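In response to a reviewer's request, we include the raw inputs and outputs for one of the modeled complexes. The two entities were modeled together in a single run.
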Amino acid sequence: MPISVDEKAAALASLPLFQGASDESLARLCNVTGEVEYSAGQFVVRQGQVGSGLYLIVSGAARVVSGSHELATLGPGDFFGELTVIDQQPRTASVQATQDTVCLAVASWDLLDLLKSDSALALNLIRGLAARVRSNAEHHRH
Amino acid sequence: MALSPQQLVDTLSGLTLFADLSRPQLEQVAHKMSEESFPEGQRILRQGFTGSGFYVILDGEVAIRIDGNEVARLAKGDFFGEMSVLLGEPPVADVVALRQLHALHLGGPELEGFLSEHPTVMFRMLKTVAMRLRNASRWRS
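The model returned the following structure tokens for the whole complex.
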């Protein structure tokens, strides 16, 4: 069953990445957000690819793998891909669906266009990333 | 020693952060930000203290120190202070000049407006912050 626009907006708004974004920004983001289904075993993104998009898991489960190492498991509410979208570096790990999985996906060119034209959203994103750099710094101290 | 406006604009045009700006835009930036110099050993930002602002290094080198331990060094073209300003929190690190430092400074309250006026600068800043986060958390591609 397709995800409603309201559900999409609520899911995106819940991402720390977009927390504090205005309703206008979220509406623009919603317009370029698609829904993608993966069957168990299918790769969502592959290591070495240049960032093709930002993904948010709506249902299902996936694992993060680098070579033969499993680095993490992901479930509903988890997101990935935002850094490669921004800096256009190759992905450092693959993400593979371990169950039938539904993701919300924002293509990198759409997100980049949006960030370049919506300074409030870009500012918000810098804040979100800065807070994460900071919590990492705090983490290393303890 | 202060640069002439011409020299300052030339210097800015060579910095990655301002790489997308036209000559008139660079002149605006040079006008908006103030040049500051710090002697070797001077603490420019203090861990846990408020105040400060946003700095872009024109010449020299600084060490980033958390609880006295050096975690990074920054040099010409690098910038610092934006995280505290944007998060509205005190710096989590000391920033110390390792030799004579020549930098451009923008007061904290002006940064948001400045970035909104110059989206390409904001986008380059976003990339840099993303890189920092990438270095801090390897897998999250």
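As requested, we also summarize the result in words. The radius of gyration of chain A is 15 Å. Chain A touches chain B at residues 45, 47, 51, 64, 66, 71-72, 80-84, 86-87, 89-93, 115-117, 119-120, 122-123, 125-127, 129-134, 136-138, 140-141 (CB under 8 Å).
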